[in-house]
């Protein structure tokens, strides 16, 4: 990868959009030359037929590839930018330093909204407004409708007719963005882009819906600038940081967060999934002991806390707290004094006062996070790995089609382990259940009133695509809405 700084970023628009969609980024990224590529049939090219080819768009970029550059594509533009990178590779030209993709299904997946192009105008427009944030004026302003319909139908026809051709993964990092309120392309879908690079993958979620590139340019610009500068900020209060990599490498990541964030880790053979959230008031940056401190009066109030290391390694192993003050063990660099491991479940970082049944934690209570990673093969043994599930969950799996049972079991066990870790292993997992294992989520536990403290967490599933195969992550976080920041190093992506 060229070590010189990126000076230019080419931007490709979403369906129906033009170069004007990037006015905000032009304003906010003053230190970067932002070059919106104007496709035919829109804005100053409105008189041209609204059709384009990959080769034509690649021509717009090719002349600038002798200097470090980046590509950003939003929605349709992301798929187009991906194909431009592959076209430039076929021409023997340098790859971009970054491929930024926003609000877009991975290229090997179909785009559900594209089917709407076959609907009559009124129904087509209604789908675009409701699902992708298109201008509501398209319904009522005849002049705007007449102007926009040809390019919208042309762009969505291109998306619908697009056929992914398998090729080697691209050799530049992919950084994906999605809006928290985007109901069309969420974080789980965006994680699929990790399959298409061998140079590292990152996911960032930001406030806003599908068209955050137009509606929240300052936030997007800040994320792009931080990425190009190599900055590694700490989690904000509504943010969850995740890292997926080799167990031998995660100690360096732990050091970045230790004493400044609440951290939990989970391991499965050759992969480690690490989660970090902002500490609560009791564990703020000025707190002398840092999150997860093993000693002090809080420990006596936490029946799930185990002083001293007790390990039971194995697939799906979930670590306990990362302690700010404990020295790293010479024989196990991933473990610190006071970490707790038992039964494949661990105490999530931040040992604090127990949350009693039937009431919420006080304002000074410490925040926890639980994390779990599993592969399908991890659920082996005489009980098929289902001992942790409730009777209702086992019945859901038994009633499912045979080809779906392993998938449902992995989802249920991963979620259960993450939730139990977040709660400090104070509960028999079999007495807690998730009512619908097919629900895409986020999930909330179903349990009796004596365990209503578990309702404070939501569990998010994360399909993980790595060079070592497919896995499933689950994270239990104490937020109703959470922004993700997910990093997968180059050796794991692809």
UniProtKB/TrEMBL annotation:
Positions with biased composition (Basic and acidic residues): 284-296
Gene3D superfamilies: alpha/beta hydrolase
The protein, known as: Surfactin synthase thioesterase subunit
Family membership: Belongs to the thioesterase family.
Pfam family, one: Thioesterase
Record region (Disordered): 280-346
Biased composition (Polar residues): 304-315
Domain called Thioesterase: residue spans: 8-225
Record-linked InterPro entries: AB_hydrolase_fold, TEII, Thioesterase
GO BP term (any one): lipid biosynthetic process
Record-linked PANTHER family: S-ACYL FATTY ACID SYNTHASE THIOESTERASE, MEDIUM CHAIN, THIOESTERASE
Coiled coil: none
Provenance organism: Nonomuraea solani
